[in-house]
Amino acid sequence: MQGVLLMNLGTPDAPDTASVRRYLREFLHDPRVVDLNPVGRALLVEGIILPTRPAKSAAAYQKIWTQEGSPLLVHSLALRDEVQKALGPRIRVELAMRYGKPAIADALESMRVAGVSHLVVAPLYPQYSSAATGSSVERVFELMSARDAMTPLSVLPAFPEDPGFIDAFAAVGAPVLERERPDHILFSFHGLPERQVRKSDHSGTHCLASASCCDSLGAANRDCYRAQCFATARALAKRLALADGSWTVTFQSRLGRTPWITPHTDVVLPQLAAQGKKRLAIFCPAFVADCLETLEEIGLRADEQFRAAGGEKVTLVPSLNSSAAWVQALVALLRPCMAR
After folding, report:
1. Do 186 and 268 share a structural domain?
2. Which of 12, 33, 192, 275 could connect to 23 by a Cys-Cys bridge, CB 3.0–4.6 Å?
3. What are the pLDDT digits (tens) for 89-109?
4. Which of 231, 339, 229, 324 is nearest to 284 (CA)?
């Protein structure tokens, strides 16, 4: 039997301070996420972030939590079930979160008990980053390598320009654009510290060296998260037939004082309002499921910020979640990774 392990980043068990603190502690102590020396990371996480951040994040989670639970988990479980239906009973599909539950170890054990002899690890991050993709894959290898008999596995690579992925986002977004008729469109991606982007530079001289460094993907920046985000935005804008100048790429969710990749979403929003833009639509193509960063940060906070700056409305374009087009695209991505 073959197995597919769908992986996303994670969510707290509940929208309360204790649960969020537990989740953030696991997340932020990952050396791929906060890539400082152990002492510096401990001082930052335990001394600065965890004393105040959990309560603020818990309040944000409370605004988007549903009766079924965390939106990210609810949508991810629905995706797992739809992918299982599409692949059929001969392939075992499990879901795991890099941090929190369902835990990777539990999913792998379920696969072992079921008799899975080849595993496809599928990080659901369209653009590669060490902090998300790298960490998720590394943890799977750590757990698998501790076994006496390690199950052969394949890893789904990043898919920033995959036609099925782009078509799926266009299928979700096109009706929203038709209905809302926005003045401008943002493609808002999760941010990363600049130092992490520079580490992916194969030439050592390309990334963030010029304003045009992400205009195309090449040998130097093929693994650059920022460049892959721009590639996704270009492909999606082309698929939606957006006019030049009608859309902008931005990056959200920065944390701390260290430089993060630009332009920042919360900086661009008031600039657009000052330019007379009244109605914005925002895609979040770094996320394949709606979560805190889409529903609260963009759907609520960005809307409030834009209105306060003189705009009228921000419309969040829903993520892919378990839409039929996304299930079809994901299955197509998975099949080449499976053992024959």
Report:
1. yes
2. 12
3. 999 999 999 999 999 999 999
4. 229
